[in-house]
Structure formats: C-alpha cells, structure tokens
Amino acid sequence: MNTLDQSADHSDKDTKQTILDATVMLIKEEGFQCATLRKIAARAETNLALVNYYYGSKESLMSDAVRVLLSTFDDAFQALEDASLLPQERLKQFLSRYVVNLLRYPGLARQVLEQGPQIMCSPTEYDRYAKILRVKKMHNTLKEITHVEDDNRLQLMMLQLYGAVVIPALITNMPGKREQITPVFNLPALDEQIDTLFEHYFNKYTL
Roughly how many angstroms between the first and final C-alpha of the chain, as a whole number? Predict the structure, then answer.
C-alpha cells in the first residue's frame, strides 16, 4: 500500500470513528429515539451520505454504538472478578450492576434485546458480542455454581438468567408507561428479584 492509499485508509477510519463517537454521545445525552441519522451527521459535522456510506443502515450504526456503550460497563464486569465474593454473589452483583447501567441510557435495554437474534444467528457477531460482554467470565462463574462443564448449556443458562432479570426491568421502565405498568407488574426491588430467581434457579445445585 502506497502513502496515498494509507492516508485515504486512515481518513476513512477517522471519519467512521467520528460518526460512531457522535452517535454514542447523542445517545447518552438524548436517548436512542432521538438519535436520528440527520442529528448524528450534524453532530459528526459530516453529511448524511457519508453516514450511509460507512454504515449502510441505521441498524448497523446502532449495533456498533450499543457495543461501545456496553464496553463501558466496567463496574458490572469487575464484580465477576471479585475473588472475595462467593460465585453466586459475584453473579448477583454483576446482573444488578448491569441492569442499573442499562437503564442509564433510555432505550439501550431494548436495543440489546432486539439485537439478540442477529447476534445468535451469526458466529462473527456473537464472537464480537461475547468479547465485549466477557462471556467466558460469566460462564466460569456459572460453572463454579453449577459444576456444569458444557459451554452450550452454560450459554443457555446465562441467556435464561439474563432474560429473567433484564426483561422485567425493561417492561417496568418503559418511557411514559410506568404509571400504567406498575399496578400490573408490582415488582420488588431488583436485588430481591435476583435473590428469588437464584433461589429457584440454583436450588438443585445447592442441595
């Protein structure tokens, strides 16, 4: 690759990163619903055609933005590495902190759930997602609790636990719907929900 080609390639990467950075900042400030392509282009100080050129679709851009946001959830992932806690408590702390972080950004939980089918159907997408979510650390913690060795089964268990915690949080925190939903889904505090879930889910492994 000659110097001119290298310069063009560097410029492409800079422009694409600028668009992604602008998207993430807009989501943090105004939420997913307000992150239109026109607003993103304006924030990135570029034009709409370049946004479409680099990302192809809003879905693709949002997918990368979700990964960036999830990669900042260090306090949640650190719980999985806290050797002073028993494995079940590590997993509880992880799920609790993860949900709290999700709810900091309006619409993030929904975006994560909507990406599920795409992620699970594509090995490449799953590999990227797994690295960001440090899936191996989750599996290792589950393995300590259950002594299950099969990775496919551990993955299924993690998805079940994740869904059981995140979906109620998503339902009860829908913008503009909380007053209607609360009388129907009068859920206890998040930590109590996780304790109840673990009590039933891990009962067979603690007998």
Answer: 63
